[in-house]
């Protein structure tokens, strides 16, 4: 990627945060031979603002768009969140509104306005519908149940939804963007939880005469409470939202960010901190761009020279780019 784009690799790649892929090498080989691809990613609007975990695929997709100078489509699945929500008091219109709100957070990442198409499913379904139908006909109920764990008490909308998330993987779903180019290669950056949708998509693609989309997956950005958790929008004090004020951010980090430091200053100075479990260090390893500075922090914290309050202060003042 460095050779093709002439740009340094993104820290998410250098540090293995994007850690797995399907057919990325094919996308790169096609690009090298002059065939451009398009990027596809998305968001299920379930909260007023995105949290830092959600930002990972968007930050990375924006980097890919800038580095490769390619188009990007962003799907807002207001339909998905309406169908899958257990909260029967929330109306479809509430999810449509959240989609609109979330679009602002996503575009603020810096997508190229000339090359980016962001859409809510309830507005744009019409153009994708022919592909949705073809996908639905090619996947059996048994397959959908095996992939997504649906059971007989789930509403019927859920069973049909995976085809809606699959459809943007095929460029013919966007005639207004791609015109007669109906088989453009597609690369999908997302966290690993979205892979089942695209395993299904890759299964049906050849049956419809389409190319399989390529994928690149990220690990989860952990919750404040600790490693091996996933930052999730449903528990407010585990997540940092892009709408949090500087003061809220500071309080959350100081109060909740799990520390790998010693129980007392003396103990910390004697034994050092444990970067493997320290959330502040973990977050810095996602967002601090400078490799040397990150390594210095790792050494100073592990040796006990840097205290927990100091590593938290470092994180609190860090801008996210
Ligand atoms: P959603 O809204 O749950 O998540 C949006 C994107 O953020 C990723 N993600 C995370 N990444 C790192 N750390 C976390 N803690 C974390 N939590 C969520 C998700 O993998 C996703 O990439 N059904 C999808 C919306 C969608 C989509 C797509 C996503 C529609 N089409 C195409 C990716 C690609 C959803 O509800 O995402």
UniProtKB/TrEMBL annotation:
InterPro entries: aa-tRNA-synth_I_CS, aa-tRNA-synth_Ic, Rossmann-like_a/b/a_fold, Trp-tRNA-ligase
Enzyme Commission number(s) from the entry: 6.1.1.2
Organism: Galdieria yellowstonensis
Name the record gives this protein: Tryptophan--tRNA ligase, cytoplasmic
UniProt-listed CDD domains: TrpRS_core (cd00806)
GO MF terms held by the record: ATP binding; tryptophan-tRNA ligase activity
Protein's GO biological process: tryptophanyl-tRNA aminoacylation
Cellular compartment(s): Cytoplasm
EC top class, as a word: ligase
Main localisation: cytoplasm
Family statement drawn from the similarity comment of this UniProt entry: Belongs to the class-I aminoacyl-tRNA synthetase family.
Known catalytic reactions: tRNA(Trp) + L-tryptophan + ATP = L-tryptophyl-tRNA(Trp) + AMP + diphosphate + H(+)
Record GO cellular component, one term: cytoplasm
Transmembrane segments: none
Cross-referenced PROSITE patterns: AA_TRNA_LIGASE_I
Keywords: Aminoacyl-tRNA synthetase, ATP-binding, Cytoplasm, Ligase, Nucleotide-binding, Protein biosynthesis
Top-level taxon: Eukaryota
